[in-house]
Structure prediction request, 277 residues.
Amino acid sequence: MADKTVPESDPIVSKSLAPHYVVAVVVLIGTLFWALWDEDFGQRPWKSFQQEWKDRYLAFLVSARSKSSASQSDVENSPQYQTLKAGYESAMRETSPRVREINEKLHDLSAKILAVQNVFTDRRAYVTALTYSIETEASAPSRQRKQRALSQYKQEITSVAFPDGSKQNYNYDQLEETYNDLKNERTKLSAELGEVLKPLNEQKVKLDAFLSDRMVDLTPEQIRGLQSKTEAWDSKIVQINVAEANIVDRCESCHMGIREPVKLSAISMSDKGKKPD
Prediction:
């Protein structure tokens, strides 16, 4: 028999390994936290650059919008702008009744088209599938039987419930014709709406062009859009990949704002986070 006597120097019996486990756990936890910090912050100095740029750029945009509003107010108070504005408002008054009428008709037509479409789509799918089966059928008797089934199916009457509560019955050909007629009518009304709005749009283009041509910088609305975009922006790697030249450019990860549509300078963005006067 084997000797089962425990040696006197057995480390498992003679002493505890708890201190060693504690040291190992502390080292592992410390390594974990160091790795997380290094992954999120230590190796990513561009995050602090980007956050600093974001804060300064937002403060700059507040100041730029204030100046832009004053510039826009000066342009809008000019006699030329007021003349163009009067022409735009006159065109709006002339076109509004007809535009409203056409939009109401388009709304009604869209509802009718949807009502017909809900029925017609399923019937058309069945007819299409049966037509394909007839075209690919090799047996003449079977093909004739399917053709009779198709003709019979097309003569079946189905009911369409319209938004006004009325109901109308159609066979397949009548349903298809009604569907196409409604869509054609909607197309004609949409084209007419475009023609009615044409003078109004032309006046609007002239008005906007006059304003933009005389603005020194962006309009307040454009700057407001930049503010919204910047506020929603999160730190990230900004990368340009030119596959044809095998070039990857990440310069803009640190050099922020080099393609912004407003003029930036070191002076204009030097006061980080400060409210403009």
Observations:
- Residues 272-277 have pLDDT under 50 and may be disordered.
